[in-house]
Amino acid sequence: MTTRKLFKENVYLQETEAEILKIKQTESEIALILDQTVFFPEGGGQSSDTGFINDIPLKNLYEEDGDIYHILDKNSLSDTTLLKTNATVKLKLNWKHRFDNMQRHCGEHILSGIFYREYGGVNRGFHMGLDYMTIDISMEENPQFTEITQEMSDRAELLANEVIWQNLPMLTSHFTTKSDAQKVPMRKTLTIEEDITLVGIGSSDNGWGCVACCGTHPSHTGEVGLIKIYKVEKNKGMFRIYFEAGRRCFENMQKDYASLNRLSEKLSAGREDILEKYQAQQLKQKEKSTQLHLLKKAVIDSEAEEILKNPKLDNFGYPIHKYDILTLDDLSQIGNKIASDLDKLAFLIHNPSNTVFLVSNGKIDCGKLVKDNAHIYNGKGGGNKTQSRAIFTKAEYVDIFIELIEKHLC
Ligand SMILES: [Zn+2]
Predict the structure, then answer these.
(1) CA–CA gap between residue 207 and residue 117 (Å, rounded)
(2) Quick check: 155 and 118 in contact, CB under 8 A?
C-alpha cells in the first residue's frame, strides 16, 4: 500500500478527493491512510503541511513505509461515522503555509548554490526557524577562503537575488538508483541509496544548483520573491548564515523599515545618519554622566561633612537628615563616609521610598535594630553593624519606627 503523492506531480494542487484505505485509532487520535494526498509530510528541513480533511483540521502528518498517515484529533470530530474504509474525503491544503515553506526552502537552495558556485562553500546544515533560517557553510572545498567577509556575503546575497529575477525553472528529476543519479553534476555528495529526487536550478547540468531533496519547491525561482542575509557568524569551524526568503522576508523588512523610520524620527536624523546621530548622542550622554558623577560625589562629601559638623537633631538628640533627590545608593555612600566618626546613631531618610538608613560607629548594632524592630511596622530590610536600612510601605511608619528605636535605646 503506497499513498500517491500528488504534491510530487503538481505542487500547486490545493484540493482533491481521496479514498480512505485504512484507519488506525488510538484513544485520542485517528490516523487515515488515503489512496492519494496533497499533503507533504515533514522532510528536507521543511515542516509538514497543514490543512483540512472534510473540514476537520489535520493535527499531524507523517510517512512510514510509503504510506502517509493523516492524524486527526478525536476531540475535533463531531461525527466519526463518516470516516470509514472506502469512504471518500475532501482534502484542503493550507496554501499560505505551504507556499511559505516553498519560498523559504527554494530560497535556501538558491543561496546555498551561490555560496558553492562563488566560494566553494558546502552547505552542511539547514534549519528553518520561526524568525529566520540558517545554513552552515563549510569552506572545506576551497581553503583559500578562511572566512566569509561582509563583502562576500553582500555579493552572495545580490547574486542570489539575481537568480530570483532571472526567474529560472526549478527542475525536478527522479532516479531509482544511486549510480544513475550520480551521473548528474551536483553540489553535495549523495547519501541516499535509492528513490532519489534531484532538484536543480535553471538547467540540469549546472552542478552548483543541483542537490538531492525531497521537499516542495515552486516551479520558478521568481516565486521566491526576495532573499536577505541577516548576518554571518563563525560556528564550529564553519560559517552560519542567518537569512530569510519569500513573504516572511518581505514582512520582516516591512517591520524593520518601520522601526528604522521610528528611530530616525526619534533621533531627528535621516536614515543615512542614524548611526552618526546615535554615536553623537551617546558621547553627550557619557559627558553628562561623568558630570553627574562628579556633582554627586561633591554633594555626598559635603552632606557627610554637614552631618558631622552641623547635624540636624530630633527631639531625642539624634542626627536625622531627610532626602528627596538623592538615591538610595547615594545615602548608603553618605552613611559609609560618616559611620566611623559618629558618636551616636544617625538616621538618613530617603523620602520617595520610605526608607530609613541607620548608621553608627558599630557600637550600636544597626543591623540588629532593623532585624528586631522593622517587622513590627511591616518593614523589610537588613544590614550590618555600622549601616542598615528598613523600607516601609507608608511614610508615617518611618517616623514611628524611629521613635521606637530611640525609646528602645534610652
Ligand atoms: Zn529542496
Answers:
(1) 8
(2) yes
Domains defined along the chain, listed by start: 4-93 (2.40.30.130), 99-265 (3.30.980.10), 307-409 (3.10.310.40)
Query: How many Å apart are CA 142 and CA 157, to the nearest integer?
Result: 19
Joined together, the cell numbers standing for residue 395 give 511614610
CA of 235 from ligand 1 middle (Å) equals 23
Tens digit of each residue's pLDDT (9 = 90 or more) over 224-244:
999 999 999 999 889 999 999
The band of 214, judged by pLDDT with boundaries at 50, 70 and 90, is confident
Per residue in 173-209, pLDDT (tens digit) is 889 988 888 888 888 888 888 888 999 999 877 889 8
Q: How far is CA 214 from CA 173, 199, 224, 282, in A?
A: 11, 8, 18, 51
Q: What's the gap in Å between 47 CA and the centre of ligand 1?
A: 12
Ion ligand 1 nearby residues (CB, 5 A): 213, 215
**Which segments of 341-394 does DSSP mark as H helices, in order?**
366-373
What is the Å distance from ligand 1's center to 252 Cα?
23
**Cα radius of gyration (the chain):** 36
Q: Which residue has the cell 537633631?
A: 313
pTM (2 decimals)?
A: 0.77
Contact 1, 21 (CB under 8 A): yes
Do residues 390 and 396 make contact, with C-beta atoms less than 8 angstroms apart? no
For residue 368, how far is its CA from the centre of ligand 1 (angstroms)?
70
CB 83 within 8 A of CB 18: no
